[in-house]
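Researcher: Let's do a round of design. I'm pasting the structure tokens now; please hold your answer until I've finished.
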């Protein structure tokens, strides 16, 4: 009985989780609740209107269409909440050391191999370079202004080229500079890259690069006790 009670206390129910996410989203993005309400009411109104239009005096048909409108409205509101919650989470991470690592830990897609730990760090500015390997080749994701991270990026590119000379290397800068991307665009930009390697080659290249090691301090903002490789 005690174990069951402890397990229940650790994991809140879905309704409680939904409410917690809603509260967090509303606090970070007050307009989200109105978008959710508008989507719900619009779907219900459309359902009622279609029910009246096709009912031909049949009350059951109106009820069915109304219920469909309620279900569709609830689904639409949840989709809006999820997107707004994700945007709010990215907004909280913006500008923090280790933000790219947090994104890689949670959203690196299948087929990519990498780590939330940077392979190069500027100890003074906390600028960092992260490395992921996938079918498009090696991608260096740079956290920090372009002008300030150029040397760090060039050094890491030379290391990759020395170990895997024929593998394409792509550089993505995360920040507010012209040509840079935002945190929420990392996953999408990786997906757009064209495949160049086979899956076996991805594994071989990843193993070669991992043998380099880093020996670098973990930047502030990353919990060393939770570091793990991200392989999908």
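Researcher: That's everything. Go ahead.
Model: Designed sequence:
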């Amino acid at each position: 009985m005690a174990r069951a009670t402890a397990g229940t206390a650790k994991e809140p129910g879905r309704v409680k989780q939904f409410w917690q996410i809603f509260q967090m989203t509303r606090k970070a993005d007050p307009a989200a609740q109105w978008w959710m309400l508008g989507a719900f009411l619009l779907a219900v109104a459309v359902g009622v209107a279609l029910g009246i239009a096709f009912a031909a005096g049949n009350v059951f048909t109106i009820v069915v269409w109304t219920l469909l409108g309620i279900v569709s409205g609830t689904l639409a509101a949840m989709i809006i909440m999820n997107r707004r919650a994700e945007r709010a989470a990215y907004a909280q991470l913006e500008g923090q050391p280790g933000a790219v690592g947090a994104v890689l830990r949670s959203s690196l897609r299948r087929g990519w191999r990498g780590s939330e730990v940077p392979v190069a760090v500027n100890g003074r500015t906390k600028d960092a370079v992260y490395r992921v390997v996938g079918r498009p080749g090696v991608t260096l994701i740079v956290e920090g202004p372009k002008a300030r991270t150029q040397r760090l990026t060039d050094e890491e590119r030379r290391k990759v080229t020395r170990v895997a000379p024929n593998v394409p290397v792509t550089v993505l800068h995360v920040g507010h500079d012209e040509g840079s991307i935002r945190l929420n665009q990392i996953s999408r930009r990786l997906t757009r890259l064209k495949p160049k390697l086979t899956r076996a080659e991805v594994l071989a290249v990843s193993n070669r690069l991992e043998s380099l090691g880093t020996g670098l301090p973990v930047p502030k903002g990353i919990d060393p006790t939770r570091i793990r490789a991200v392989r999908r």
